Amino acid sequence: MADHYTYRVHWSAEDGEYVGTVAELPSVSWLAEDRMEAFIGIQRVAEEIVADMEASGETPPVAIADRHYSGKFQVRVPEEVHRRLAIRAAEQGVSLNALASSRLAGA
């Protein structure tokens, strides 16, 4: 299961090392001087945590990659923001949904 998790490795100027993280286990990290060591380290820790959770009868988090997404979510914005976005969408000849989707994809 942990091999499907979402791993990231980035440099930490504060720590002076690479930091490996896993999105499904946000409180877990691994420091290493080498980028690959950080990647391998965080994977090992995640595998150990998942094994411990399973051994104790807990359900580990489902990998983000294995989750189903509907493609829909609702965002609340102030009325004026909604109005400005509707105007921009009309000016560009696209739907508000297409404008928002395009902007989110570029973020």
TrEMBL record:
InterPro entries: Arc_rbn_hlx_hlx, Ribbon_hlx_hlx, TTHA1013/TTHA0281-like, Uncharacterised_HicB. Gene3D superfamilies: Met repressor-like (1.10.1220.10). GO terms for biological process: regulation of DNA-templated transcription. It holds the Pfam family HicB. This is Toxin-antitoxin system HicB family antitoxin. It comes from Actinoplanes siamensis.
